[in-house]
Structure to design on (708 residues):
C-alpha cells in the first residue's frame, strides 16, 4: 500500500457512490429502537420499484441525538428524520425524490447541533463504520502515511505536545508528555494500549466513537506507536459493548488486509499489530495499572505508582495508555497542525470534549463542544432543559469519581481546572442532569453502592471505607442518623481521599462531599427524621 | 445456547468424549499457546460455550494453562461477567447506570422482582428465568434500558417488560 493506492481507493469509492442515499444510524441506541427493521423496509420498497442500485441504503455511525432515535438522514438534501418507524419508509423515499413528507425532522438549526464543534466526531454519521473504503474516502490513513514518511518520532511527539492535548479519560495528563516519557524509557519492547473500558455509568462517548469510526482510533494508535517505538497494541474494550467489539474486529482485519496495520506499514520499516482484549466487567480496570493486570490475565487490581506504566507497564515494559477519545484526536492534530488545535479551547484545556448528556434532559445524546463552553450553554441551550420544563437542580459530571454541580454554578466553564475548582472533575464525559425529583442523598448513596461493589478489595481505606460510607448513608436515608454522623461521614471521606491506593478509592468520596457541600440541607432534613422518609 | 445454559454438570460429564465444545475451547487455548496471560480470554470462551463456569471446567482450564487453581478461581470470581452458576433459560438484565437510575430503574427493578418472584442476581427455582443487573449498558439515550435475552429494550417500563417476560416464559396470567 502506498499513497497512490490510497488515493485510488478514495476516488473509486466516491465515483461509484450513488447520488441518492438514505443513511440510517446503526449504533447501539438506534439499533435498539428498530433501525435495522427500517433498513429492511427501505430496501424492500426500493427493490420493488427496481431502484436498489440508484439509491444507496447505508449504515452510518452515531448521529448524536440518541434520545430521538432511530435517526435517518437522506442525501443530497441532508434532511434528517427522528423517531422513524418502519412504516415511514415510503415517506422517506418520497422525501428523497423531493416530495413532501410528514415524518418528524430534526431541527438542524437547534443549538444542540449548531453549538457543536466536530473534531473527533467529524465522520460520525457520514461514513459506514464497517467499510474501510468509506474511511479512506474521507481522508483516512493519510495522517499515518504523512507521519511515517515525512516526520521523525520526535517531531510527532513535539506536535502532540504543542497541540496542548490532554488525556480524555478524565485526569487530563498532558498527552505529549506521556508519549515523550514512553519514547525515552528503555525497554526491549514497548506497548500501546487504548483504554476503552468506559466504566462510568452514564457515559457512552467511547462506545459511540468505536461503533461509528473505529479506524480513526486505530490510525491514532498507529501514529502513537510510531512516535513511541511500539510494535504491539491492545484495545481493552468493555464486554458490555458487543457491537463496538465486532466493529473493531472488522476494522482491524480490514486495515491488516490493506497493509495499514501489521508488518511494514506503507512499505516502511514500521510494524504495528493491534489485538483486542475484552474486559469482564470490573470498573476498577479503567485504572491503568489494573487494566494492565487484566491484560496479563490477572485480577484487575491496581498497584502503587511509581513506577508509572510509561516506564514499567505491560509485562514490565514501557507502555503508553491513552483513552479512546485521546487517540481519536491525533489524526486531526497531524492533519491540521498543532497551532490550529491549540487555538481551540481555553488556556490550559485545548480542543474539544465529547459529553454524554443524559438524565432529566430534553435532548439526550452526544455532543462535542469546545473546551470553555459553560454548563449553562450545554444544559439549557443545547440540552433544552428538563423534559417537563421544570428547573434543573444539578448536573453530575465525572461519574462515581466526580461531583454534583448545582444550577447556581452553571456559568462555570467546562475545562479541567474549573470543574475541579467546584468540587467535580471533567471525567470521561458523562453529564447526568437532575431535577427537583432527584434526592441528592440518594444520588450519593447510589454512587457509594457502586464504588462499594466495584472496590477491588486490595487496600483497606477503599474496601472498608466504601462499605461504611454506604451504611452511614443508608442509615441517614432511613432517618436513623444522629447529627454527629455528618461530621463522621466527612471525616471518613477525607481519610479515604488521603490514603486509598488508586483513583477509585481516592475519588469515591467526591459525590458525597460535593452533595454535602451544595445540598447540605437535604442531609440535615434526614437527621432524626425516622418514620417520615418518602421515596 | 439455551440448552447449554440449563445443562447440569452431570449432564455434561455424561456427554460423549467427542463433545466439540471442548475442542473449540482447546483450540482457543492453543491459539494463545497455553499461556497463563490468556486466562481471561479463555474464560470468556468457556462461558460462551458452556453458559457458566463450573468447578470442573475451572480446574480443567487451570491444568491446561499451567496455573494454580486458586488463580483461575480468583480471576473467575473477581470479574462480574463470569458466572459460576447456571443462568436461567431466559434472562432479563436491568441497567442500573446513572442515567437509568435518574429515570427510575431502581423502582422498575423492584417491580420486576415482585412480579417474577426472583430477586436481582438470582435465577428462578425452575431454572427458567434470571433477573440480572448491569452497571451501565452505554445506552443512556434510551434510559431506562434493559436487555431481554440479548436484545436491548429502550425506555423500558413495567407494563411492556412484564408482558414480554410473561410471553417469553409462556405464562398466561
Amino acid at each position: 500500500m502506498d499513497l497512490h493506492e490510497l488515493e485510488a481507493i478514495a476516488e473509486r469509492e466516491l465515483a461509484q457512490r450513488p447520488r441518492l442515499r438514505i443513511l440510517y444510524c446503526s449504533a447501539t441506541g438506534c439499533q435498539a429502537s428498530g433501525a435495522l427493521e427500517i433498513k429492511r423496509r427501505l430496501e424492500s420498497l426500493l427493490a420493488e420499484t427496481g431502484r436498489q442500485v440508484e439509491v444507496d441504503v447505508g449504515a452510518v455511525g452515531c448521529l448524536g441525538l440518541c434520545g430521538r432515535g432511530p435517526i435517518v438522514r437522506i442525501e443530497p438534501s441532508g434532511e434528517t428524520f427522528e423517531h422513524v418507524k418502519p412504516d415511514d419508509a415510503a415517506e422517506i423515499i418520497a422525501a428523497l425524490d423531493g416530495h413532501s413528507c410528514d415524518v418528524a425532522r430534526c431541527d438542524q438549526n437547534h443549538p444542540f447541533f449548531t453549538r457543536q464543534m466536530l473534531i473527533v466526531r467529524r465522520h460520525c454519521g457520514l461514513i459506514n463504520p464497517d467499510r474501510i473504503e468509506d474511511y479512506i474516502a474521507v481522508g483516512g490513513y493519510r495522517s499515518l502515511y504523512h507521519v511515517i514518511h515525512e516526520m521523525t518520532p520526535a517531531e510527532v511527539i513535539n506536535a502532540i505536545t504543542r497541540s496542548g492535548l490532554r488525556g480524555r479519560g478524565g485526569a487530563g495528563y498532558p498527552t505529549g508528555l506521556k508519549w515523550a516519557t514512553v519514547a525515552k524509557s528503555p525497554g526491549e519492547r514497548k506497548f500501546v494500549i487504548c483504554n476503552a473500558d468506559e466504566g462510568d455509568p452514564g457515559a457512552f462517548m467511547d462506545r459511540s466513537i468505536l461503533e461509528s469510526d473505529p479506524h480513526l482510533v486505530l490510525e491514532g494508535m498507529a501514529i502513537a506507536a510510531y512516535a513511541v517505538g511500539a510494535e504491539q497494541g491492545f484495545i481493552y474494550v468493555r464486554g458490555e459493548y458487543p457491537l463496538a467489539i465486532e466493529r473493531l474486529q472488522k476494522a482491524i482485519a480490514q486495515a491488516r488486509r490493506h497493509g495499514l496495520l501489521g508488518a511494514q506499514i506503507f512499505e516502511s520499516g514500521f510494524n504495528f499489530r493491534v489485538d483486542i482484549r475484552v474486559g469482564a466487567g470490573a470498573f476498577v480496570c479503567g485504572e491503568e495499572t489494573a487494566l494492565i493486570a487484566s491484560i496479563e490475565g490477572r485480577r484487575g487490581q491496581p498497584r502503587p505508582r511509581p513506577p508509572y506504566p510509561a516506564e514499567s507497564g505491560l509485562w514490565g515494559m514501557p507502555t503508553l495508555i491513552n483513552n479512546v477519545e485521546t487517540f481519536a484526536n491525533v489524526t486531526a492534530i497531524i492533519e491540521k497542525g498543532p497551532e490550529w488545535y491549540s487555538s481551540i479551547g481555553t488556556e490550559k484545556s485545548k480542543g474539544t470534549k465529547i459529553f454524554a448528556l443524559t438524565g432529566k434532559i430534553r435532548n439526550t445524546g452526544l455532543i462535542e463542544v469546545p473546551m470553555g463552553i459553560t454548563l449553562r450553554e450545554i444544559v439549557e441551550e443545547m440540552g433544552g432543559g428538563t423534559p417537563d420544563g421544570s428547573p434543573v437542580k444539578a448536573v453530575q459530571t465525572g461519574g462515581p469519581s466526580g461531583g454534583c454541580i448545582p444550577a447556581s454554578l452553571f456559568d462555570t466553564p467546562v475545562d479541567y481546572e474549573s470543574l475541579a475548582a467546584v468540587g467535580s472533575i471533567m471525567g470521561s464525559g458523562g453529564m447526568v442532569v437532575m431535577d427537583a425529583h432527584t434526592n441528592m442523598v440518594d444520588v450519593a448513596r447510589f454512587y457509594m453502592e457502586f464504588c462499594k461493589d466495584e472496590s477491588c478489595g486490595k487496600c483497606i481505606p477503599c474496601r472498608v471505607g466504601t462499605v461504611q460510607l454506604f451504611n452511614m448513608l443508608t442509615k441517614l436515608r432511613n432517618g436513623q442518623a444522629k447529627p454527629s454522623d455528618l461530621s463522621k461521614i466527612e471525616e471518613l471521606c477525607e481519610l479515604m481521599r488521603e490514603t486509598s491506593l488508586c483513583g477509585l478509592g481516592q475519588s469515591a468520596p467526591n459525590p458525597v462531599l460535593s452533595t454535602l457541600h451544595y445540598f447540605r440541607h437535604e442531609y440535615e432534613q434526614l437527621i432524626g427524621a425516622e418514620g417520615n422518609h418518602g421515596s | 445456547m439455551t440448552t447449554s445454559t440449563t445443562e447440569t454438570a452431570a449432564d455434561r460429564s455424561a456427554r460423549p468424549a467427542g463433545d466439540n465444545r471442548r475442542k473449540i475451547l482447546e483450540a482457543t487455548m492453543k491459539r494463545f499457546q497455553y499461556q497463563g496471560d490468556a486466562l481471561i480470554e479463555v474464560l470468556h470462551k468457556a462461558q460462551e460455550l458452556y453458559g457458566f463456569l463450573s468447578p470442573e471446567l475451572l480446574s480443567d482450564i487451570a491444568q491446561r494453562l499451567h496455573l494454580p487453581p486458586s488463580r483461575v478461581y480468583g480471576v473467575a470470581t473477581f470479574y462480574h461477567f463470569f458466572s459460576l452458576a447456571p443462568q436461567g433459560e431466559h434472562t432479563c438484565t436491568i441497567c442500573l447506570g446513572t442515567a437509568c437510575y435518574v429515570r427510575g430503574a431502581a423502582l422498575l427493578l423492584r417491580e420486576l422482582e415482585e412480579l417474577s418472584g426472583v430477586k436481582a442476581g438470582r435465577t428462578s427455582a425452575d431454572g427458567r428465568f434470571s433477573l440480572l443487573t448491569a452497571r451501565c449498558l452505554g445506552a443512556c439515550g434510551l434510559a431506562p434500558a434493559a436487555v431481554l435475552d440479548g436484545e436491548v429494550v429502550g425506555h423500558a417500563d413495567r407494563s411492556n417488560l412484564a408482558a414480554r417476560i410473561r410471553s417469553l416464559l409462556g405464562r398466561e396470567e
User: Anything to note?
Assistant: Residues 531-535 of chain A have pLDDT under 50 and may be disordered. Residues 460-477 of chain A form the longest helix (18 residues). The two ends of chain A are 63 Å apart (CA to CA). Chain A has four domains: 13-108, 139-167+174-184+203-309+319-342, 352-435, 440-526.
